[in-house]
Amino acid sequence: MEKINSLTGMLDLISNKADKSEFADKIFLTEKYLKKIFQNYGMSEIRTPALEDTNLFKRSVGDASDIVNKELYSFNDKNDKNIVLRPEGTAGVIRAVIQKKIDLEAHKFWYMGPMWRYERPQKGRYRQFYQAGVEILGNHEGLPEFEMISLICSINQYLLIDKPLIKINHLGDNKIKELYCEDLVKYLSPLKLNLDEKDQNRLKKNPLRILDSKNETTQNILKDAPKINNYISNSSKVLLDEIIKTFSPECNIQIDSSLVRGLDYYTGFVFEAISDDLGAQNAYLGGGRYDNLSSQLGGKNLPAIGMAIGLERLSTLVNAEEASNKLLSFIILSEKINPKAYKIAHDLRLLNENVKIDIQLSEGSLKSKLRRASKDNADYALILGDQELESETVIVKSLKESNSEQKSMSIDELNGFISAIS
Ligand code: AMP
Questions:
Q1: Does ligand 1 lie within 6 Å of residue 262's CB atom?
Q2: Ligand 1 contact, 264 CB (< 6 A)
Q3: Which residue, 269, 203, 198, 207, is CA-closest to 232?
Q4: Cα separation, 330 vs 15, whole angstroms
Q5: Fold of 16-172+232-316
Q6: 131 CB less than 6 Å from ligand 1?
């Protein structure tokens, strides 16, 4: 029969032990580290549904953005309601906060989960991808900006990221953003025919996005264009400088006045982290301030700043390793199902959370089970046959030391041995 494959741009993530690929394990490890760091920063978890009302993204991310215009996975449900697989996490978080009527309080949230965008798949760009995000709600510009950059620096440091660069910029408030856009359009309009079709469209719908165009001719034209840093207030410039001063030299931070970010709702402070090791899709996280989103979605005025991290991209840069917990492979040698032997293994598992105990469930000879234990890179094999069961002992065999002898231990001795492993 014909086999059924996964959809284009959607990956199966299967652990290395079964799949011989490190990609998935790196993502799982990155998730573990990120959760720890978020908790370390006193943040609370939030989980919102993957399916949302399509209007949520039309009203937040914006009709003119590529995400809403071309990339939404939207369809009608059985009740003819137009719904969408979420393309990003922020809009859902703000919807939830408004719905729960907690939009007047300050919150620090983190989330993790899959997102969907109908993009052209390429290296580092998928149609289903995972994001971890952070939203700091209820605080005006100032300390939350420091908290965000501090968090990114910690992620770079804990995960031992290759060659990270944090780019920051300030887009001013709504008025400044508008004024700047008008001047940018005035400058670019007479040169319109030199722009490619995509940038000509942006000139009408979303002129700021032209600044991060990948087209070389556009980039040359932009060299003499008005610069946003000549429009923003002095206090915005001071904020950018103070952030660089506070976190340098440990963190590599630079102002990039062409950084605008793709989503409509950003105003004020924006940022992105990139690494040259990623190739063309070099951004592994991005975010900024979005003070108007809550009121745009029918909530109270809720100043906010947030970011989203692309887990597939970040994880390829991670050099930190899994904590090397000892692995013990538990081998039960018995002709029939032996609940008593299983119970001994079960009790051992409760002794020490730093120890992994893998009970081999398949049938086979001692030789094949020892081979399996070595293949799994186990540190010890614990062997329990009928004779051991009778004498209430377990054989402990080191698999890492060459020519090591095996020892027979009483259950009490084994408990002590496992409890002492760090
Ligand atoms: P955005 O929500 O567009 O601001 O993206 C935030 C981060 O998510 C980016 O810096 C990427 O690391 C990641 N990302 C966005 N789109 C994709 C995609 N199609 N595939 C993989 N990662 C993505």
A1: yes
A2: no
A3: 269
A4: 21
A5: BirA Bifunctional Protein; domain 2 (3.30.930)
A6: yes
Atom of ligand 1 at shortest range from CA of 125: 20
- Report the alpha-carbon distance of residue 223 to residue 257 in Å, rounded: 11
Residue 89 CA: nearest ligand 1 atom is 2
Alpha-carbon span 201 to 222, nearest angstrom: 16
What are 383-409's pLDDT values in tens digits? 999 999 999 999 999 998 777 778 999
C-alpha dihedral, 295 to 300 to 305 to 309, nearest 10°: -70
* Pocket of ligand 1 contains residue 126 by CB under 6 Å: yes
Q: What is the model's pTM?
A: 0.89
Over the stretch 76-129, which tens digit does the pLDDT of each residue have?
Answer: 999 999 999 999 999 999 999 999 999 988 999 999 999 999 999 998 999 999
Top mutation candidate among 148, 281, 282, 316 for ligand 1, by most atoms within 8 Å of CB: 281
Which residue among 122, 128, 152, 285 is best mutated to probe the pocket of ligand 1, counting the most ligand atoms within 8 A of its Cβ?
Answer: 285
Q: Residue 89: CB within 6 Å of ligand 1?
A: no
> Token digits for 263?
């989503």
**Count of CB atoms situated within 10 Å of the CB of 363:** 10
Task: Give the residue whose CA is nearest to atom 20 of ligand 1.
Answer: 125
Cα-trace Rg, the chain: 27
Non-local (6+) Cβ contacts of 202 within 8 A are: 209, 210, 213
Can you give the residue ranges of every domain in the chain?
16-172+232-316, 326-419
Give the CATH class of 326-419.
Answer: alpha beta
